[in-house]
């Protein structure tokens, strides 16, 4: 991907209270609609959706893999629109399937947890749930429909994980931008960074209240702001700043942690939360870790490896994690071109010693 290639989001982003009621109108222009979803996701959708839903349903296998996306395309055979109903892995699977079929993609998130419904980014895994690669769909979604009242069905733990994943946008981009020459900070990079800063400030100001609102099922301005920050604004950071605003240290280490099977049951954002601290330790920003500590404590975010179900800290056990995190094609290197596995391991040790 070119550093100056701007891909900010879907063709249409529809957000608000009750907007799913207009779904029949949105789908009326398509002749053959196929739906990709998961068991729980579709149950939640069906319990809320006010109309009949007479479209063929295809279940993904939970892997977000090329293999499953291809199998779904072969099962669908032909469609001019693929509707993804679910979380980030459903959305990413549907991106591959829609592209394979030459169909438009419509994404209906069933929870507030990440920016996958907004961006063309695809986080692809192997069928065994280890990371494969970060890819990009050839075009963004035709439409993303964010019904804020429907999204009050988001499990609180997923919402909190989404907050953590979105918080990383600022810290990952700041670690890159601080080392860039002023002339390299294009107008679009600066816009992406200001978006990341706005997101951080929104999260610090509103996230704790938004969690409380979600816990009692109350649709409030705070919940709506955090919803759009997680799904849309987070996607705009990388959409404008591209390689400087997608990911860096925290997500590179997160992807490496996929080699530890005990972390597979931990939500993506929770792992990223811990990895933000490791990245901050790597850049010697321990004062920032302490600034974040009350926020982490209020949301019960992971601050130690044991919170990710990891009980070993020996260097050999982390070999595959570290090797992956420092790969040239990964993004930790954007912070430090001279990165080594040992430096990352030392940062992990530093966080564990706090």
Automatic annotation (TrEMBL):
Swiss-Prot/TrEMBL cofactor(s) = Zn(2+)
Query: What keywords does the record list, in alphabetical order?
Result: Metal-binding, NAD, Oxidoreductase, Zinc
Q: Which GO terms describe its molecular function?
A: metal ion binding; oxidoreductase activity, acting on CH-OH group of donors
- Membrane spanning residue stretches: none
Q: Where does NAD(+) bind?
A: 88-92, 110-113, 119, 125
Per UniProt, glycerol binds at: 165, 251, 268
Pfam families listed in its UniProt record:
Fe-ADH (PF00465)
Kinase: is it a keyword of this entry?
no
**Per the annotation, how and in what number is the cofactor bound?**
Binds 1 zinc ion per subunit.
Q: Which CDD domains does the record cross-reference, listed alphabetically?
A: GlyDH-like (cd08172)
InterPro entries named in the record? ADH_Fe/GldA (IPR001670), ADH_Fe_CS (IPR018211), Glycerol_DH (IPR016205)
Where would I find the Alcohol dehydrogenase iron-type/glycerol dehydrogenase GldA domain in this sequence? 10-147
Family from the record: Belongs to the iron-containing alcohol dehydrogenase family.
Q: What is the name of the protein in this document?
A: Iron-containing alcohol dehydrogenase family protein
What species is given as this protein's source? Enterococcus casseliflavus
